Amino acid sequence: MDRRRALTAVAAAVSMPIFAFSAFAQNASSSVSEKSGNTAAAMGEAEAKHAADTSTAGLMSLETSRIALKKAQNPKVKEFAQFEVAEQETIADVLKSMRDQSTPASGQVKAPSAEVTQTNLDAKGKQMVEKLQKAEAGAFDREYVQGQIQGHQQLLQIQETYLKSGKDRENLNVTKLMRGQIKEHLALLQDIEKQLGRG
């Protein structure tokens, strides 16, 4: 229990720089000419793709975990969903703050609404959300955990791909740390999946 909390806190701290430079990448494409001190214009193609792909996968994890808070029956599944929601809501808030420089600084997390997350899901994310919404109570926990395993495997592949092609030292270093945390999450999810199989 304490180990999971510690891992979640570390994962959130490690993930934020990744999502922060994702916001800068989006700013770069729309307002490069603004004199805001934004250096994202120099971001390489690999960095921009890595940021966008990581952000998309995180959004799916947030929305599906919100569903799990309402539908999960197994205590460990519900606990994992609680931590995942808190982590992804924080990251989404950081993204919004970084995109919009007019947003006042705040120590409070302003979570994105369900409407915002659902609108910005990609096709795969929408498909997963629909599947979980329709899942019967007895099958939901297993389907959610399997979806999280697939999502984390995708996140891991995104990090591995970037580590082979990335050029920015800071982003590469953060990605190395993030890769380790994703592997930890996968191990936890696989343990939960085994427990569900024994149930």
From TrEMBL:
Q: Residues in domain DUF4142? A: 47-191
- Sorted alphabetically, which InterPro entries does this protein's record hold? DUF4142, Ferritin-like
Q: Give the signal peptide range.
A: 1-25
Which keywords label this protein? Signal
> Which Gene3D superfamilies did the record assign?
1.20.1260.10
Does Signal show up as a keyword for this record?
Answer: yes
Which PANTHER family does the entry link to? BLR2558 PROTEIN
Q: What is this protein called?
A: DUF4142 domain-containing protein
